[in-house]
Design brief:
Number of strands: 0
Order of helices and strands: HHHHHHHHHHHHHHHHHH
Strand content: under 5%
InterPro entries: TPR-like_helical_dom_sf (IPR011990), TPR_rpt (IPR019734)
Pfam families: TPR_6
Helix content: over 70%
Keywords: Signal, TPR repeat
Shape: elongated
Structural class: mainly alpha
Number of helices: 18
Largest sheet: none
Distance between the termini: 86 Å
Length: 338
């Protein structure tokens, strides 16, 4: 009898639970769980019901627009996100979602108009500058794209994306300095992604190009004190690369560069990247750091061999690299507008 009663109570509890009408917040959370699982159809179903209960919720509408985007129903995605752009409470994410949708629909002029509106509202948003720069790159406006990425670096120096795009841009020009500086800043801000591996290879190639580009045939179009100082210090230590650009020669070059830079220019041009390198030298990790960048990019098998032969040094550096928070502070922007 007791067992039968217990079963009856359990059934009653289940029926009651299913009979309860979840509120908008509960439905929204369920919808987000479906999104995390990649179940876009169920996410749309539940988020739509949540929106019926709370029609003005911008957070629900953002998630619904994003779900339509991932479902590749770009028309519904645009229909959902478009009204949000003009709302007073539209945040950066609204404009990011809208930008991705417009780009997916190849409505690039509408996207450009939207990004201009977004940056007028959020003039210090690194992500918006990065994405607007990407759009301009798609429109073959190379000057416009690098201008946006530079503005992103200047106004939001803690955001990694603009360093990535700007470094890639400069790597494919004859620029001697900013490709190397921005590229290395980026890999310290975003240290373990596919973009990091790409940037390491570009850094290695960038150092090779640094000593092979002939300034007489390809002179710099603009004068910049920071860049001139960087080039001068590199040149006065360039003899260590006479036998080729290797991890060992780069480690030696960059160590000597730091010593001379700190003597002559650190006070005038304080920079978080050089402070970071100096700390690595002082703590005996600079060799491991250069191995992590250049050997891993140039010869992965050789790098893996180095890690096995230098396990303690490798583990110490890896622990440090993963535990640090690398951000550039405001006031260390030295690249003037072109």
């Amino acid at each position: 009898m007791k067992k039968l009663l217990s079963v009856s109570v359990l059934i009653l509890m289940c029926v009651t639970a299913f009979a309860q009408d979840p509120d908008a917040a509960q439905l929204h959370e369920t919808g987000k769980q479906f999104m995390r699982g990649g179940d876009w159809s169920n996410a749309v179903l539940v988020l739509t019901k949540a929106l019926q209960k709370e029609p003005n919720s911008i957070s629900i509408q953002k998630d619904l627009a994003l779900t339509y985007y991932y479902q590749r129903d770009f028309g519904k995605a645009r229909e959902t996100v478009k009204p949000l752009i003009d709302r007073d409470d539209a945040d950066v994410q609204v404009f990011q979602i809208a930008g991705n949708i417009y780009k997916a629909l190849a409505e690039r002029k509408d996207a450009e108009k939207m990004y201009k509106k977004a940056l007028k509202k959020y003039p210090t948003s690194g992500p918006l500058y990065a994405e607007y720069g990407e759009l301009l790159w798609m429109l073959n406006d190379n000057f416009g794209s690098i201008e946006q990425w530079e503005l992103g670096i200047k106004t939001d120096p803690a955001y990694a994306g603009n360093y990535y795009f700007a470094a890639r841009y400069y790597f494919f020009t004859t620029d001697k300095v900013w490709a190397l500086v921005y590229g290395e800043v980026f890999i310290n801000m975003e240290s373990y992604t596919s973009r990091t591996a790409e940037m390491k290879k570009l850094l290695l190639d960038g150092y090779k190009k640094f000593f092979t580009i002939d300034e007489k045939t390809q002179p710099s179009k603009t004068k910049n004190e920071f860049a001139d100082a960087f080039i001068a210090v590199m040149k006065q230590n360039s003899a260590v690369t006479n036998n080729g650009i290797t991890t060992e020669s780069l480690t030696m070059l960059r160590t000597r560069f730091l010593l001379d830079w700190n003597k002559s220019y650190a006070a005038k041009f304080p920079h978080r990247l050089f402070d970071h390198q100096k700390q690595l030298v002082q703590e005996g990790m600079f060799d491991a750091y250069n191995q992590w960048i250049f050997e891993a990019a140039g010869d992965l098998a050789k790098y893996e061999s180095w890690t096995k032969l230098n396990t303690e040094q490798y583990n110490e550096f890896t622990k440090f690299q993963k535990s640090k928070l690398f951000k550039l502070p405001s006031g260390q922007y030295y690249k003037q507008a072109n």
